[in-house]
Amino acid sequence: MRIGIFAFTGITMFHLSVPQMVFDEVSRLGLADWETFLFAEESGTIRTAEGYEISGLHGLADARDVDVLVVPSWFTDGRPAGGDVRETLRGAHEAGAVVVGLCLGAIPVADAGLLAGRDAVTHWDAFDLLAARHPELELDESVLYIDHGDVLTSAGTASGLDACLHLVRSRLGSAAANRVARALVIAPHREGGQAQYIERPLPDDSGDDPISRITQWAGRHLGEPLTIGQLAARAHLSTRTFVRAFRAATGTTPAAWVRSRRLDEARRLLETTDRPIDLIAADCGFNSAVTLRQNFTAAFQIPPSQYRRRFRS
After folding, report:
1. How far apart are CA 293 and CA 187, in angstroms?
2. Is pLDDT above 80 for 313?
3. Which residues belong to any copy of the HTH araC/xylS-type domain (predicted)?
4. Tens of pLDDT, residues 106-134
5. For position 205, what pLDDT does the model report?
């Protein structure tokens, strides 16, 4: 299998090396005859973000005759892909190649029209940019990669390893993917998505309007029952008026906002304290540890106990 990997001036060495490490390991282990090569918009030399010069790169024309075309990242400013790059991606796809956009590499893949009407994933920090440019996409923060068979996208940075291992697994089977994972000392399959890594800024509650006052108060009383009726009464508004004003101010419903704040507080307590999960559940207003686990896992794709082990300060 011939695999072309797109390189550009400013790409990081990590992003560029991920598909090479995984796919070249297939050949090193004698599992299959896979060949990788680097190409750029123009043949010659690029300079990486770390300042290294990489020479001997192929041009775009050489990327047409590939089995897999990988865009391992993209410019950090999220600039639209140029016409030549878009044409190369479309041409490879039309010729039967699998097109892979790792991390920000999903941006040029989307610009080439290969994700229209499909689910996709990219680095969480680029969700807003990609959604604004391509509103037809359905972006999913709950997964590490999405494979449509002919097009594959992955979440941020290290998720490229998961996506490339998945490609090995889908072509050569689980045993081969496990051998590659063991050789590289990485997990053959990771659970969850990137939602657990997203920094979720709190809405502005510094004002003195009824909604700001109620969000400030609710944030200090997360362990208490916080029904819509109780919040509306405390804001001295009818339930209907309160819900409408709350959505206008925060962009979400009172129930969703309360649940999000409770989950954020649970994350903080899991990271910074040794409190048992059942006490954290009570502190955050969940009826039981089971309810906390269900909501936490649904939101972050990882159980509270595993989250604590991963992110404990």
Report:
1. 24
2. no
3. 212-310
4. 999 999 999 999 999 999 999 999 999 99
5. 46
State which amino acid sits at residue 57: L
Strands 151-154 and 119-120, by their bridges, are unpaired
What's the order of all strands across the beta sheet hosting 68-71?
A: 35-39, 2-6, 68-71, 98-101, 151-154, 145-147
- Which amino acid, residue 112? A
* Distance spanning both ends of the chain, measured CA to CA: 44
Number of other CB atoms surrounding residue 244 within 10 Å: 12
Q: Three-state SS for 139? A: strand
Domains of the chain, CATH where assigned: 2-197 (3.40.50.880), 210-311 (1.10.10.60)
Pair of tokens at residue 80: 């639209």
**Radius of gyration over every alpha carbon of the chain, rounded to an integer in angstroms:** 23
Share of the chain above pLDDT 90, in %: 73
The secondary structure of residue 181, as a DSSP letter, is H
Backbone angles phi, psi at 176, to 5 degrees: -65, -45
What CA–CA distance (Å, rounded) separates 115 from 300?
A: 25
Report in angstroms the alpha-carbon separations of 1 from 151, 172, 178.
16, 12, 19
User: Are 4 and 16 spatial neighbours (Cβ–Cβ below 8 Å)?
Assistant: no
DSSP 182-240: HHHTS-SS--S-SGGG---PPP---S-SHHHHHHHHHHH-TTS---HHHHHHHTTS-HH
Instruction: Show the 3-state SS of 92-109.
Output: HHHCCCEEEECHHHHHHH
Q: Which residues contact 143 (CB under 8 A, 6 or more apart)?
A: 121, 155, 193, 301
